[in-house]
Amino acid sequence: MTRRSADERREELIEAAIRVMIRDGVAGATTRAVVAEAGLPLGAFHYCFRSKEELLQSVIERIMLRALAPAVAAGVEGAPVAEVVRAGLHTYWERIRLSPDEHLLTYELTQYALRQPGLADLARRQYAHYLRVTRTSLEEMARLARVEWTVPLPVLARYGLGVLDGLTLTWLIDRDDELAAAALDEHAGYLVSVARPASA
């Protein structure tokens, strides 16, 4: 039998926790359920994580890194701002459509963290990351299209996150691709309206 390193076991436990949470919900992701899913002994959990809260943080970080990298389509440098913005938003949306269960889990993790004493900081860090990613995406769109935003970037990032977060949750509920795409294009139109050619 091949001996697995602590890092390998940690990775296996994170991925196992995601599978258990998708299947059974966050509350169902007991340490026993997670190690059973990973095919590891119970002691492996305590060797890799100090607490269930540390595992939850790792799960949130893993999903964020996998699904919420800055969303800008490649190969559009110098293209019109409308093309750059729509390409970026649709790149983001395709990630949502390809992994709906993981995105649904992020909402459950947020609610769980907000309701548990001492875990609210997990939700704050989660949304702080979302804001950074949204801001980075807007910065990259502006660079590619050679424009600047007429709305202060912190405000535009928060507004954009609110729109995309709401569109995502609504789509997870009704799975209406047509209306989601139309709403996404409406948001793209707004972003185009607050862009102007970059000053020299």
Report on this model:
It is a single chain. The protein has 200 residues and is an all-alpha fold. The protein has two domains: 1-49, Orthogonal Bundle (Arc Repressor Mutant, subunit A), CATH 1.10.10; 60-197, Orthogonal Bundle (Tetracycline Repressor, domain 2), CATH 1.10.357. It has helices at residues 6-24, 31-38, 42-48, 52-67, 81-98, 100-115, 120-145, 153-174, 177-193; strands at residues 147-149, 195-197. It has a two-stranded antiparallel sheet. Helix 4 (52-67) runs antiparallel to helix 6 and helix 8 runs antiparallel to helix 9. The longest helix is centred in the middle third of the chain and has 26 residues, at 120-145. The protein is elongated. The chain starts with 5 loop residues before the first helix and ends with a strand. The mean pLDDT is 88. Residues 30-49 bind DNA. It holds the Pfam family TetR_N.
In a nutshell, what does this entry contain?
The chain has 200 residues and is mostly helical. The chain is built from 9 helices and 2 strands.
List the helices and strands and how they pair.
Blueprint (H helix, E strand, L loop, with lengths): L5 H19 L6 H8 L3 H7 L3 H16 L13 H18 L1 H16 L4 H26 L1 E3 L3 H22 L2 H17 L1 E3 L3
Antiparallel strand pairs: 1-2
List keywords for this structure.
200 residues, mainly alpha, Arc Repressor Mutant, subunit A, Tetracycline Repressor, domain 2, two-stranded antiparallel sheet, 9 helices, transcription cis-regulatory region binding
Given the structure, what is the number of helices?
A: 9
Q: List segments where confidence is low: pLDDT < 50 over at least 5 consecutive residues.
A: none
Q: State the helical fraction.
A: over 70%
Oligomeric nature of the chains: single chain
In total, how many beta strands? 2
Q: What overall geometry do the principal axes of the alpha carbons give?
A: elongated
Biggest beta sheet attributes: 2 strands, antiparallel
